[in-house]
Specification:
With 296 residues, the protein is α/β, with parallel strands linked by helices. It folds into two domains: 185 residues, Rossmann fold; 89 residues, N-(1-d-carboxylethyl)-l-norvaline Dehydrogenase, domain 2, CATH 1.10.1040. The protein contains eleven helices and ten strands. α2 packs antiparallel against α3, α4 runs parallel beside α5 and α10 crosses α11. The longest helix has 24 residues. The mean pLDDT is 96. The protein binds 3-hydroxybutanoyl-coenzyme A (3HC). 3-hydroxybutanoyl-coenzyme A (3HC) binds next to α2, α7 and α9. 3-hydroxybutanoyl-coenzyme A binds next to α2, α7 and α9.
């Protein structure tokens, strides 16, 4: 089966980006949300991002009418829906909802009943076991992780995660889908955090523990890693960018499964900020204050 129609569940930070790159890859996309306001906000972000990409293409010398037409064609391939039944005939459904394993398992159990028998399922989870969601879906051999990075439109990687039960042809199709979305795909096993987050999240939490100890200010820690290592963002700025709630959810999931792993220690300042509703860039404040995409 060739993948033509793609469903994306969730039109938030990751979901809107996945819907967009899939449409840019030529796929027909249905993006499903629970409330109109979430759909409007996600589709609005896609409009802004497409306008920005068209502007960049024009700056680089593309004819303006061609760049604008291309954006309009991409946008026309995306439909928003508040009815999960609209995912029933998709060839691939990618989940990008809240980072809560029980909610994800419940969703996949529903999709397993709803979607045609050939549909491949993928989760964009940052850290939960793919096998647990695969089992809940009732079709574990047709299940992979497709882990994109934020901002999806700009980050060039996708991790394609296989479990012991993923069929070779399903893994190959998922990988080809990621590449058609313009990404470089790497394959990996279903281990905590896969490749990137297993390395990145402990690095981010170590920077917060360093902040708590008073070893350096947030700005100095970030500057150190940007200029000392050539990273585009420092670890604390990146925690704000990823979302403090998401970072905390990842660590909490790992602590539950691996209570004796010191690399998964949860910084108290992260818990406090999340309790205060300071979730980073998306709420306008985390460890820094933000105005839109710009750190203040
Ligand atoms: N769509 C289209 N254009 C976009 C965009 C989007 N979504 N987001 C930003 N842009 C544009 C900007 O408007 C800007 O345009 P301009 O040059 O005309 O001003 C251009 O892209 C570059 O953006 P910035 O000016 O902000 O400049 P940077 O060079 O700093 O690039 C960045 C931004 C790519 C985000 C870079 O800072 C970066 O790579 N940061 C690290 C991000 C990262 O590590 N992500 C992974 C997080 S981990 C993760 O996602 C996993 C999860 O499971 C936790």
């Amino acid at each position: 089966m060739a993948i033509k129609k793609v469903g994306v569940v969730g039109c938030g930070l990751m979901g809107h980006g996945i819907a967009q790159v899939a449409a840019q890859g030529g796929f027909t996309v249905v993006v499903s949300e629970t409330e109109q306001k979430f759909l409007d906000s996600g589709l609005g972000r896609i409009d802004k991002s497409l306008a920005k990409l068209a502007e960049k293409a024009i700056e680089k010398g593309a004819p303006a009418d061609q760049a604008k037409q291309q954006s309009a064609d991409v946008r026309a391939r995306i439909t928003g829906s508040l009815d999960r039944k609209s995912l029933a005939d998709c060839d691939l459904v990618v989940e990008a909802i809240v980072e809560n394993l029980d909610v994800k398992k419940q969703l996949f159990a529903e999709l397993g009943q709803l979607c045609k028998k050939e549909t491949i399922f993928a989760s964009n989870t940052s850290s939960f076991p793919i096998a647990a969601m695969a089992a809940a879906s009732g079709r574990p051999s047709q299940f992979v992780g497709l882990h994109f990075f934020n901002p999806v439109q700009l980050m060039k990687l996708v991790e394609v995660v296989r479990t012991n039960e993923t069929k070779d042809e399903v893994f190959a199709q998922a990988r080809a889908f990621g590449e058609a979305c313009g990404k470089v795909a790497i394959g990996c096993k279903d281990t905590p955090g896969f490749v990137v987050n297993r390395l990145l999240v402990p690095y981010m939490s170590q920077s917060l523990l360093m902040l708590e100890r008073g070893d350096a200010t947030a700005a100095d820690i970030d500057t150190a890693m940007k200029l000392g290592c050539g990273y585009p963002m420092g670890p604390i700025e990146l925690t704000d960018y990823v979302g403090l709630d998401t970072t905390l959810a990842i660590l909490q999931g790992w602590v539950k499964a691996y209570p004796n792993e010191p690399a998964f220690k949860i910084p108290a300042c992260l818990e406090t900020k999340v309790k205060e509703g300071k979730l980073g860039r998306k709420t306008g404040e985390g460890f820094y204050k933000w105005q839109g995409d710009k750190k203040q």
